[in-house]
Give the backbone structure.
Amino acid sequence: MSTAVKMGKGKKGAPKERIKQEWFRSGRGWYATDGHTNVPLRDETGRHIKDPGARAEARRAYVEWEKTRATVQAPKVGDVRPGTATMQDVVAMYHADCQRRVEGVGKPLERNSLKFYMDTLFNFCTGYPASLRKKPRRRWTDEEKAKKIHAGFGHMPVSEFKGLHAEQWLNANPGWRKARKRYLKHLRAAVNYGVRLGIIENNPLEKYTVAAPDKKNVYISPEHEQLMYRHASPALRIALKLCIRMGMRPICEMATVTAKHLEHVEHQGVKTIQFVLPPHMSKNRKVRRIAVLPYDHPDHDEVRQIITERLGRVKSGPLFLSPRGVPWSKQTMRQQFARLLDRIERKEGVRIRYVNEKTGEEVSPVFYDTRHTYAKRMYSGYWSRSVSLDTLASMMGNSPKTCYDYYAKDFENLTGGLPLGSL
């Protein structure tokens, strides 16, 4: 039931010992220890055992839980031969590899990302929603069986798995309609891992693709922009202004630039500044030059003032930090922006939404739409004279084809530019 774990030296130099309970009672129920996690022990009906006197029943539940856990532990590479593995085997080994990455071995992986990966693949293997993933059980209850989404593909031999089955899996989850590529990405990563190990001979997803969702780029209006500045925290306000007025990518550019990336340049007799990112920091692996706004616009001086002020405060590391004083992350930026929209709706009574003309659905803006807003304003001449899509592509660090694919249809009525401030 328990094992001794050495903890260090006591008062007299002798090592202390802490008893690590493999199953125990705590609070209002019985639990088992799974690494650093306490897992509720459940009876045959799936209910958490809570009775303090049910020690024998808890012991039996622990034994059954150990048997269940042993059957789902990741098999070793040597235990699985090509032609005999199932999709569950591949997912289990991929899970073990991701767990090692979370612990610092190999390419880093955030724990939150691991959870999302495994929630997705649990759905793929079992057919049950991710909410049931961490509930140890001997059998599924009738209530849980009613939640089953599809038959599950974990039992399928890898030799029989095809792109058709991936399509069936995605179709069985209609709530993923707008993020099918994202969920397929995690399944593809597991399959690619099996290919690298030699467990899967021919990648069944190599030629399988999903169509991009029918979405429309969102462009933030000047009125909504001012509302955001009024209610945003100082750190978020700076991030919004830089991304709208410089076209910076939020995470890989705005959140990572430092003082060493800043250059002072002179253009047509006007001194200004720009960020220059080396190829290894650029999305397209080319030198990325991020210029401040056109020199004759008032926003140009404000952006320069923001950058100069941050240079005086930040001695090393990223110049632009989150409200907590640490570098921005995707999750923090997403949360801060969502809370900002809620705050505006609560205090101003303004619900910031845009209508997708193709589908008729209301679309809520996300932080990355600041970059789309920059593109539209530069192309239309909002700050200065209008620019062509080719010029816009070089200013945004994109290829001309990318700009045409993203913006050509949206901008077809903007050729010739618009009057200043008319967007």
